[in-house]
Structures are given as C-alpha cells and as structure tokens.
Write a structure and sequence with these properties.
This protein is an alpha+beta fold and about 425 residues long. About 40% of the residues lie in helices and about 20% in strands. The protein is built from 16 helices and 16 strands. Helix 2 runs antiparallel to helix 6 and helix 6 packs parallel to helix 10. The longest helix is centred in the N-terminal third of the chain and has 17 residues. The protein is elongated, with a radius of gyration of 29 Å. The protein starts with 7 loop residues before the first helix and ends with a helix. The chain binds adenosine monophosphate.
C-alpha cells in the first residue's frame, strides 16, 4: 500500500488556528434584538425616579474587596462563594461589585452627600457580578436598577421605597404584584432572637443540611431561608422574630405595614424572609408578580451599614430590581415594550456626488429630531431600497445625480409607492409635514 504523505501545509494551518474567543460563562451579551426591552425599562426607571425625586448616582464597578466583606458579611454566600475578588498589579485587593447598596453608602460617606439633601434619595443602574452556578434566572453578570434613601430612619421612607419600586413595576404593566415582608429587628432585639434560633437549631442539628450546619455558628438567621427540603420542614417549629421584637422595632414594623395597607398594596408577612446580606435590619421585603417564581426586586433597611464601613451612623433603606429578571417575567406575561418611537425615514443615494452630499442632508434631518436610516455603503438603489423594505420604513428620500443638479430630492411613500419632488431648501419642513 502506498504511504500517504502528510500535507505539511495543512497541518500547520490547523495547529495555528486560533480558537474562537467566546464570552465568559454566565455573562451574556445584550444584543440589539433586545434593545427595546432595555430602553423601555431604563427609561421607565428614570421617569419614575424623577417623579419620586430620586437623583442619579453611579459608582465604579470595581471597589475595594473590604467594602463588601464589611457590609455584606464574610459568612454570606455572596462573599464566601460568589465574589469576584482579586489583587491588582499594585497589590490592592479589589472586587467586582456584587451589589449596589454598599458602594452608594461608601460614596455618601466619602463625599459628605448629606450636604446635598437630607434625606438623600438616589437611583442607579448597572452590572453586578456574582460567581453563582449559571442557570435560568441567575447570571454571573446581571444588571440591577436600585433606589436608596439615606440618612433617615423614619418608617415613612420604608413605605416610600416600597412605593417607588411598585410604581416602577406597575408602569411596566406587571400584573398581580405582591410583597413578602418581614422585620429582622435591631441590635437590641436581634441578639436575643439569634440565641433562640441557635438553641432551637442546635436541638435538630443532625437534620440540617451541610451549609446550615456551618450557618448555625456563623449566621443562624440564614437557616430560615435555606431552600433544602429538610431545613424547610424544620423551620415550622422555629421561634419567630415577631415574638421577640423590641418595642421600637415593633412600632416601626406596624407603621410600615399600615403605610402599605393605606396604599392598597397586597402583602404577605413572611417570618422566614431574612435576605442574604448582613447589613439589613428591621424591614426586609421581596416583590413578586403572578406566578413568576423569582423575586423581581428585593430590599430593606440598613441602619448600621455606614458604621460597618467605619462611618458615623447613617440610617438607610433601599431596593434593587434585576433587569434580566424583569425582561424574562415580562416576556412570560406577554407584555411588550411600550416605547414612544421618533419619526423616521430612509435615505437612499445613487452616484458618487449624491452620496457625498447626502451626509450633510441626513445630518440636517437628524438635528431636527428625525431618525434617518440609511445603507449608503450599498451602491445600487435596489439594494438600498431592499433595506428600507426590511425595516418597514414608511417614507424614503431618494437622492441621485439629477437631483444633485436640480437641488431637489425624491420623496417616496413606501406604502402607496407615490413619489414627488421636494426642493432641498424646504426638505425638513416637507418631511415634518408627512411624518409623525
Ligand atoms: P439582591 O441584591 O440579592 O437582593 O437581589 C435583588 C434583585 O436582583 C433580585 O430580586 C433579582 O431580581 C436580581 N438578581 C439577584 N441575583 C441575580 C442573578 N444572579 N441573576 C439575575 N438577577 C439577579
């Protein structure tokens, strides 16, 4: 049998082929096909923020790792298992932010934001990072829209926080909104309750899951919201915080519930809701819609957070919504984005001279608030008009050699096919008459 010679050229091409670089697991791209969802949600959030007098704040994506360790707590899942923390070349330990509240409080202390307003009401949106197991509804990079009210511990602000997020969700047309709400007390009553919880779970320690066995020493309250079936069944006999609240916390919770009732918001007290971050105290809540299984938003009060970061006492309350979850839930409820679209037209140019002059004309239209779509890279009119059809453009302007000399442009109604000539000096005026 003749020996088959290896094709040297082919092998080396194969070896040198670069593996296709793909996005990092759990960090999906946001693509133009979803543009209307993102725009709608962010625009709605901005509008609701303005109506409720919340001001924009943006903090960096990278923060000192110690910020989250001190605020969220080293024994929480977010810090223990999920934080992207690393050392920079200069030796600083930094972390990709897993949440937005601690950075806002850091910024408040650093820039003395109390001088700006008291209470300070701010909103933010942007990416958050948690190294969780990627699954539907849980990404490693996801986006939150958040609201925070700082420097006042009045329960009226717990109510305002709940109302701003509900307004946001109602503006997005979410159906059947409901709140799960609980109180996790203050420094005074929490230590007493923690002891009760600890001693109860000590008595059933053998039946707890591995994670909860660990939590028993470090963070016994978290056992209450463990998703393990055994742990869930054990909690029905566990002591309830409401029975151990101090008078002040009791009054605070009562007022918050009254405020919610006054505003006709359906709520369900959930004695097992504790939330996964150490900085919370008193009110904690989550918001759900219809039978979508994940919480759309979660929040609560954090009166000790500033002190946990080394600052003076600055009480606060806030809430964050997951934008990806909002989109998933809206799609499931068959709600589509309600975006106000601007008037738009298609601009086609044929021939070098027309093409050259077209940018100036297009820009003039755009400066007058008209969206202009074009495909000037394509030479033939046919190819350009195909794009106009694909994007269902209602109106097209056609600019050719003849029109350049005559200082006119052809205006074509894409529905009827009717065409007319417009003088360039009246272009904007004529276009505005025809499109809304
Ligand atoms: P949290 O910061 O954990 O209180 O979460 C607030 C909201 O952010 C949740 O109600 C979700 O809507 C969203 N969220 C939290 N974690 C994730 C995640 N891993 N992937 C997508 N959305 C998330």
């Amino acid at each position: 049998m003749p020996k088959i010679k290896k094709n040297k050229k082919l092998t080396s091409v194969k070896q040198n082929r670069i593996d296709l670089i793909k996005s990092v697991k759990g960090m999906p791209d946001i693509l133009p096909k979803d543009e209307s969802w993102w725009k709608w949600i962010i625009q709605t959030g901005q509008l609701v923020s303005e109506l409720h007098d919340f001001h924009f704040i943006e903090t960096p994506i990278l923060e000192p790792a110690a910020l989250f360790e001190s605020a969220v707590g080293t024994s929480t899942d977010i810090i223990e298992k999920e934080m992207y923390a690393f050392k920079t070349k200069g030796g600083d330990r930094v972390a990709l932010r897993p949440e937005g509240t601690a950075p806002v409080v850091r910024s408040y202390i650093e820039h003395h934001l109390g001088y700006f307003a008291s209470p300070l009401k701010v909103f933010y949106y942007g990416p958050m990072f948690r190294y969780d197991r990627p699954q539907a509804g849980r990404e490693r990079q996801f986006h939150q829209f958040g609201f925070e009210i700082l420097s006042d511990n009045d329960p009226i602000y717990d109510g305002e926080t709940i109302l701003v997020v509900l307004d946001f969700l109602k503006s997005l047309k979410f159906k059947n909104l409901s709140i799960k709400i609980n109180t996790i007390g203050c420094k005074v009553c929490r230590s007493n309750y923690k002891e009760k919880i600890k001693s109860y779970y000590q008595s059933v320690k053998a039946k707890l899951c591995r994670d909860c066995e660990r939590r028993l020493e470090k963070n016994p309250l978290r056992i209450l919201d463990c998703k393990n079936e055994n742990c869930i069944s054990l909690r029905s006999n566990a002591p309830i915080f409401l029975d151990y609240l101090c008078q002040n916390c009791n009054n605070h919770f009562k007022t918050v519930l009254e405020l919610i009732e006054d505003n006709n918001v359906p709520y369900e007290p959930d004695p097992y809701l504790v939330r996964g971050l150490d900085y919370y105290n008193r009110t904690v809540f989550e918001i759900f819609s219809s039978d979508f299984k994940w919480a759309l938003a979660g929040g609560g009060r954090y009166d000790y957070l500033s002190e946990m970061l080394g600052g003076r006492s600055i009480p606060g309350v806030g809430v964050a919504l997951g934008i990806e979850r909002l989109i998933e839930a809206l799609k499931l409820q068959q709600i589509t984005p309600h975006l106000k679209s601007k008037p738009s037209l298609f601009f086609a140019a044929v021939g070098d001279q027309a093409k050259k002059s077209s940018l100036r004309l297009i820009n003039e239209l755009r400066l007058n608030g008209i969206v202009v779509v074009e495909a000037l890279g394509k030479k033939s009119l046919r190819a350009q008009m195909k794009i106009a059809d694909r994007f269902k453009m209602p109106l097209a302007l056609i600019f050719g050699q003849k029109e350049v000399f005559e200082k006119t442009v052809i205006m074509r109604d894409m529905g009827t096919g009717a065409q007319e000539n417009i003088v360039l000096s009246k272009l904007v005026e004529e276009v505005k008459k025809r499109i809304k």
